[in-house]
Structures
1.
Amino acid sequence: MNTREPVIQEPDAFEPEATRREAGATESSRANRGWWDRNADDYQVEHGTFLGDDRFVWGPEGLDEVEAELLGPPEDLKGRDVLEIGAGAAQCARWLAAQGARPVALDLSHRQLQHAVRIGGSFPLVCADAGALPFADGSFDLVCSAYGALPFVADPRLVLRDVHRVLRPGGRLVFSVTHPIRWAFPDEPGPEGLTVSASYFDRTPYVEQGDDGRAVYVEHHRTLGDRVRDVVACGFRLVDLVEPEWPAWNTSEWGGWSPLRGNLIPGTAVFVCERD
């Protein structure tokens, strides 16, 4: 449980307009950096207890790396160089450090990383774009990302190619994203979120924008097939695709994720990939 007092910022006064329209790499990066900087405090207040200070949770279902072992057995993590992309307050990196790994926590949002500083840890924190990783070739044994970066970038292959570059041969990439099927349903946790309302095949980004038309939040949709093709095209071998079921113990709602929906449709997809 996170018992520390967060540093609170004043919330935004305006309500952005939600739409579906094209949004390129530069606009997406700028918008999402600003959104996470503005909303990091509220995010940590709302979800900090669920995430903990040093847990490795793959998504709202609560799939924990302790049981999942998607990065490998915990005892094998000791001494491994690990990059966490989209680290937020670095909860996952903190868990990795406790297993004896050497993590680096990277996030686009400076404010999210300030929360990582607040909680504490002796590993490096890096504020950078996932599509331009500031590391030398072959720097890491493992790369992981729990809902970080990939849902928010216009060109996921740009990120995956750079991850491939910084991974050592035989290294593993594991990342989780919103399950693509959820894009066909309203983002509602109750019964109203159980009726298909959009085409699963419509890849037009979801954009929230201000009165001036400038995007303040962007999320990009890829089908399940798109994700698989992206992974393979960037030099990875897909070794597992995990669709976590909603556990009976989890009574939480998180945006459109809920026990009601989670028992009927998948909410998260976790891709386990290896670099040959």
2.
Amino acid sequence: MSAAELSRAAALLRAADGLLIGAGAGIGVDSGLPDFRGNHGFWRAYPPLAALGIRFVEIANPHSFDANPELAWGFYGHRLALYRATVPHAGFAILRDIGSRLEHGAFVFTSNVDGQFQRAGFGDDRLVECHGSIHHLQCTRPCSDAIWPAAAVDPRIDPATCLMTPPLPRCPRCGALARPNILMFGDGRWLDARTEAQYARLERWRAQVSNLVVIELGAGTDVPSVRHMCEAQGAPLVRINPREPDVRTGRGVGVPLGALDALAALRASLG
């Protein structure tokens, strides 16, 4: 990041009264989490699925729970355990600090399902998880609109096969297989009531903010949900992305760094 870019980004934040944080998978890289960039990146994280030739879009799919429930839950159970064990990197605390300086604070919009923002101290009332959360479950059928916490799930995964040892999570209402309350590829069964309530809270918060600034971190163009939301705000945008930092719409600053390095530099500039 050049001194000029850093100065511009800091000036945008000083002029703001609210901060929207847009976060994709790249924000978790500094915490040691994989971002599944391309099939090869996914297969490096899951060798048993590579051996079977199963792509990310095929396992992250509601039909995988019908075809091979032990494997589907092996993949999601491994991720659930990984996210529970992961400590958010220091950049999350920097974002909290920046937001605390603004009149209306910060709100998070993320495509990540890992719950890292909550673990870092962000409140549930200031968060949209647009693809749902691995820490919540629903029925695979689904038999009702119920969404419940995954706290009781204790996944035991065979690392050689990526299969989850039974018993698999079940719906407490009908006994059918349960699944994470995550929007998957080709998913017509996802229950979105929890996420829709989050969107409603974001709308109420956004209506209060007169001088919004957006910090977008690690959001790619392959699944551009976060990029589209951040660009749609019509507000100054600080885009932090080591591979795709260009800002093509409105006022903004592109920062070609990882999340932690960029945020540490930005905090130093703000003082």
3.
Amino acid sequence: MKIYKFLSLFFIVFNVLTLSSCRNSDDTDSQDTSTGNLQIKFENGFNNLGNIVLNQTVQTSASGQKHNFSALKYVISNITLIDESGNEFKYNENNPDKGAFIVDQADAVAGVVYLDLNGIPKNNYKKVRFGLGISQKAYLLGQNGQAEFWTKAKQKGMSWSWAAGYVFIKLEGKYGASTADTEFMNHTGNMGNVTANNTPDLYREITLNLPTTARVTAQIRPSIHILADLNQFLSGSKMLSLTTENNMMMGSSQHLVDVTDNLTAMFKVDHVHND
């Protein structure tokens, strides 16, 4: 009987200690505030084949029109990472100085433009959301609220004037029926306060599922590889053609609204590396 009581007491103490240890471990995990880094890679191509070469790569649209790009740039902002439980981490939301980037094909390395994000909370992320352009909330902060990014945008030719704001997407190149020999210029973007001016808001947000979980830790820096299919420019949900009426356009005309809507669908996550 003494041995039986001793063993019973031993197992009770053992279970209490085990549960306490697990609870402490869970508490430690739930309070883990460590951060890591994450990289997003943009690769611009046609029909999900990457590496557009400026002034060289020619695409034929759904309507049979040939076109190429001499300039291909767009603004990415308000990057949000969404974890397995649906919780969101917003990376410098509406803070262009720290959270906006210009994807410029002229800067591509082996066809890829790299965006490096730091200070990302340790977590397993299943989705990414980002803005194409600059939100009205960020723009209306005024020049003092985004002086650094405004300077970058100006240097990259991604601004109108301060009163008007930013170019969101800049596409320039040549087009034609049999050969691409006629110049075009389509620059999309808001001009000023769209509510006060009663003009379309061309800022768009895109949410993408990740095929593999991006696991951010202090040791692991995931890399999210996004393909941008520029075939959507003229061959998207609305089939477009460049003409003498729309080949030189800036702002938010109906043609540029259609261009924006088409290009909103150009992004997809090709793969995720957890390195």
